[in-house]
Amino acid sequence: MSAHATMSGQEMRDMLAAAAAWLEKSASDIDALNVFPVPDGDCGTNMLLTLRSAVEEAGKVSAADIGAMSGAVAKGALMGARGNSGVISSQIWRGVAMVFKDKEAATASDWAAAWTQSVETAYKGLSNPVEGTILTVLKDVAAAARASAEKDESIVHLIEQSMNAACESVARTPSLLPALRDAGVVDAGGQGLYTVLEGMLHFLRGETEQMQFKKSHVIASSVPVSAKAVRLSPTDEEPFGYCTEFLLKGENLELEKIRARLKRKGQSLIVVGDASTIRVHIHAIAPGRVLNYVTKLGTVHKVSIRNMDEQHEDFLALQKDRQPMIDIAIVAIVAGDGFADVFASLGAAGIVPGGQTMNPSTKEIYQAVEAAASDKVIILPNNKNIIPAAEQVKHLSGKTLAIIPTESLPQGVAALLAFDYEADFDTNVSRMNDAKAHVRTVEITHAVRDTKINGFVIKKHQAIGLLDGHLAAVDEVSDKVLADLLAKSDLSRVEVMTLYYGANTTEAAARAMADSLAVKYPGRQVEVVSGGQPHYDYIVSLE
């Protein structure tokens, strides 16, 4: 095939059969890349079953033309699509079939056009496309295919360039999707697409015998990734619902109308197909309502309803199994992506989103403790309102627990910095308690209502400053409040000031503030870190 500039239908079928066999070897590795609560923890398996169904349907076609064969591939993929990744895969092959329709054979230019059409078809089927996933990888594949077709008529060269582009694109996915970066993995769907292209290329090069003794590799991220701390969703108390999938068959089915109606009944919605057959994937709290609606439109087939709350429990257990056992684990309650990165980089094994106005429940803290790969766990609440919930975990877990009563994020950072990996549990608890006591915390936020307190008359939305939790300054401008509060404080023993700026504060504004403090307080080290915390313009650590 390497010298061929065209591809027949039979060659396409055999190529995809080889690709399916190649994907099968790596399906479990791709499954393991899943990042919950992103749906479909069996991404590799779902893509494999979808491709198998496509190949099986193609095997029923006796015609040699690629138009008929690609049509069968698209039909089989749609009928056998499973999970989010499987449905998207079916749309890739539908796009290919749209370009190959009525063609005897396909050229490199046809393949370039097919991948391009696949991008449009795949995006159109999703209610909320997300970059950093298989969609982004598919776009990069299409771009590489177009560039290859302009310079070379070889289909083998085009698939090779497409595969290389997929590899590079998959490696970049953590830079586009924070959930991937936090977990230290690449996108599972993108990895699956790369593996399929790799299998296609092996076949076209005549390397089927070698394929029996090898398997694809998992692509490494091209960007630095965060420490693999288990990060729980801030909505763990809300049910995930049911992953609901089915085929709807009927006459004159209106795709857009059905998509619009189902959009109000759940999330992660995919509606694809045509006027006679539609494949639906949706996450719904009440799947019965979804089925009640579609049964009025036609007949429903291949119904699959899976409880995602059970999947979540399985995920927590899997995360624990993936982590190497450690002697002592740290679980921290943290507000803001920047602070989460700080705690993870310092060695926290579990991150629970929470803080002011968003206190996590005992259940959420307990889940993080149980997910930690250690029988000894130290909890950093980092907020005085969260300490009671953390204390309750002692009565639920069978692990050896200690709660360091940190009342602010800077105290939590100081405690974590004091942790000694070579010391025993009791020694570390003592060291961390001592360290948090030597940090003062300044917090700049805004009043939510008019009030009078501590001699201050406060108007709603005014900037207010708290020193170690006590109101100490009020003004219209956050920077002025911070400056006034520091001026009132005893900084004689302070050596380092760290400004963690919040989600609504720009880096430029924070650095300007830091520069002014460095001038006003010479001899002190002033650092700027993105905290990303909500509600608070600045959280300042004085050490």
Overview of this structure, please?
With 543 residues, the chain is α/β, with parallel strands linked by helices. The protein has 20 helices and 19 strands. A hairpin with a 3-residue loop joins strand 5 and strand 6. Helix 4 crosses helix 5 and helix 7 packs antiparallel against helix 9. The termini are far apart.
Q: What's the helix and strand layout?
A:
Layout: E1 6-7, H1 9-31, H2 43-58, H3 66-80, H4 83-100, E2 106-107, H5 108-124, H6 134-151, H7 155-176, H8 178-183, H9 188-204, H10 208-211, E3 230-231, E4 242-249, H11 255-263, E5 267-273, E6 277-284, H12 287-294, E7 299-307, H13 308-322, E8 329-334, H14 337-345, E9 350-353, H15 362-371, E10 376-380, H16 387-392, E11 400-403, H17 409-417, H18 425-436, E12 440-446, E13 451-453, E14 456-458, E15 463-467, E16 470-475, H19 478-488, E17 496-501, H20 507-520, E18 525-530, E19 538-542
Parallel strand pairs: 3-9, 8-9, 8-10, 10-11, 17-18
Antiparallel strand pairs: 1-2, 4-6, 4-7, 5-6, 12-15, 12-19, 13-14, 15-16, 17-19
Helix pairs in contact: 1-2, 1-3, 1-9, 2-3, 2-4, 3-4, 4-5, 5-6, 6-7, 6-9, 7-9, 13-15, 17-18
InterPro entries: DegV_domain_contain, DhaL_dom, DhaL_dom_sf, FakA-like_C, FakA-like_M, YloV-like
Protein name: DAK2 domain-containing protein
Pfam families: Dak2, FakA-like_C, FakA-like_M
